[in-house]
Amino acid sequence: MTIVRSLVLFALAAIAEIGGAWLVWQGVREHKGLWWIGAGVVVLGVYGFVATLQPDANFGRILAAYGGVFVAGSLAWGMVMDGFRPDRWDVAGALICLAGVAVIMYAPRA
Q1: Fewest CB within 10 A of the end CB: N or C in the chain?
Q2: pTM score, two decimals?
């Protein structure tokens, strides 16, 4: 159950961080205004709290592993929200990152 909880928290963190950054991007780059930027800042703050809910207590491990989730999640977000079409190298890189997440977070430790 701990692994499932951790995976759900990683997914929620990705939605919050990538979504918040996307809102800021839309506000600035797409000229949607201060409301979008402000919403993005709030959602980015939510990401910071979600990360603290991980079962593992090691900040460095959580953030290192989350980096791999962020890479794969960013590509997925781009596909859904912006019509981005990743090529095989994007997909290969994301899979490598997710393998790193699995090793960092879920490898058996003594």
Answers
A1: C
A2: 0.91
